[in-house]
Design brief:
heterodimer, A: about 110 residues, mainly alpha, about 0% strand, B: about 300 residues, two-stranded antiparallel sheet, 12 helices, 2 strands, about 5% strand
């Protein structure tokens, strides 16, 4: 049981690291597409690791299964919204606008 | 450890509220508002109030956030300059209001602390009276049985909001455009997954509401969220008239609640007495439908909704 607990903590820390990296990427990367690239890693892998860690800690197959379902749902929603944002960013950059690249509040050109 | 988490949440909430207000662009303010609402929902959850957490996340953040976003989208189309305009900063005004609000919160908090005592608080009376109703969730007990006049009026206020919005729309109520439907194949797949799942969640919340966290407001917000997804995916479109069924759905909450509340007087009960568990379920179901449809129509900014004809 001890080993499993440590494994769960390791998974939680790894998941948190993914979220940290994703957040840094979201804040520091230059344009919408690379920001999405950073964000989706946190969403997919980070959430999976955290759900796995919590599932092990809960010691109940039912809770673990529920967490896994939550991950699947978040994965589906994140995939589609990232796809839509990316498509919009692509259209915008084709038209020379940069509304999505710009959350700083500066009016676009 | 949990104190650290609570402190981080509390400080984040204040910072996010500040950021929502001083955001120099409207869009940034909207995004901050949504994050603010989610943080508030987490705080409610940590305070052991899952009902409030769900209501805040679903209505205060989800549906309201979607309404604000679609309003921003329309503003950008109608008056592009207004949408890009920098929000002027009024630090003196903000500081004054902030200090006054803090004083108010502190005063209420201190008063509550001194009031807390055995027997003096409604919570104890509620805990004693709740088993008689057969309900397990004290929130639903308060909303439907003990303070149900408030709830009835809340549903009536929603109806009034719809009537007011419809009056503001004028004659051509389907004129407000929605963002163009995204016809990407992934969107269809997401809708196919989300809508049945969301219906399931809404029905579960409704059913669970009598014993566990949940209830008509959370379930209704879930239904409205589904309608928003369907509108954004182009499956539903604004219609100039609500039609018979949608008109019925708009008023059924207020109507059923009032009818049952008045009908019990024929049996010598006081006004708005709840005759039994069946009445709780009937009222909650009617409210769920009304709340869902009203919120969806407020989002679409139209008098009614129709299924998009396949072209």
């Amino acid at each position: 049981m001890m080993v499993l607990t440590w494994l769960a903590y390791a998974l939680l820390v790894a998941g948190a690291l993914f979220y940290l990296a994703g957040t840094v990427g979201l804040l520091r990367f230059p344009d919408a597409l690379s920001r999405l690239h950073a964000l989706t890693k946190a969403d997919n892998v980070g959430l999976l690791l955290i759900c796995l860690g919590l599932g092990i800690l809960s010691q109940s197959p039912r809770q673990a299964l529920l967490l896994l379902l939550i991950w699947l749902l978040a994965l589906t929603a994140a995939t589609v919204s990232a796809h839509l944002i990316a498509r919009r960013a692509l259209e915008d950059s084709a038209e020379g606008r940069s509304a999505l690249n710009d959350l700083s509040g500066e009016p676009g050109p | 450890m949990s104190l650290v988490i609570d402190l981080v949440l509390a400080i984040s909430l204040v910072v996010l509220a500040w950021q929502t207000l001083i955001g120099r662009s409207l869009f940034r303010g909207l995004v901050m508002f949504v994050v603010f609402g989610l943080t508030l929902a987490m705080i409610w959850a940590r305070l052991g109030s899952p009902d409030l957490a769900m209501a805040e996340a679903a209505i205060g953040t989800g549906v309201t956030g979607a309404m604000l976003m679609v309003a921003y989208w329309r503003l950008r189309r109608a008056v592009p300059e207004a949408a890009e305009e920098r929000v002027p900063r009024r630090p003196l005004l903000a500081a004054t209001i902030g200090v006054l609000a803090a004083v108010l919160v502190a005063a209420i908090g201190l008063t509550t602390l001194s009031v807390l005592g055995p027997g003096g608080v409604a919570g104890y009376a509620l805990a004693e009276a709740l088993p008689e109703t057969g309900l397990g969730n004290p929130i639903t007990g308060v909303l439907v049985v003990f303070r149900n006049l408030d709830t009835l009026l809340e549903v009536a206020v929603l109806l009034a909001a719809y009537v007011g919005a419809r009056a503001a729309m004028g004659e051509d109520s389907a004129a407000l455009p929605l963002p163009p439907a995204q016809d990407a194949p992934l969107v269809g797949a997401l809708v196919a997954v989300l809508v049945p799942l969301g219906l399931l969640v809404a029905l579960y919340l409704f059913k669970a509401g009598s014993q566990d966290p949940g209830g008509a407001f959370q379930a209704g917000a879930m239904l409205a969220a589904l309608a928003v997804v369907l509108m954004l995916a182009g499956r539903l479109r604004p219609a100039p008239e609500p039609g018979v069924w949608m008109g019925f759905a708009l008023i059924v909450g207020t109507a059923v609640f009032s009818l049952i509340g008045v009908a019990v007087m024929a049996w010598g009960q006081p006004l708005l007495a709840i005759p039994g568990m069946w009445a709780v379920y009937v009222i909650e179901a009617a409210m769920m439908v009304s709340i869902g449809v009203t919120l969806a129509l407020l989002f679409s900014g139209s008098a009614g909704l129709g299924v998009r004809s396949r072209s």
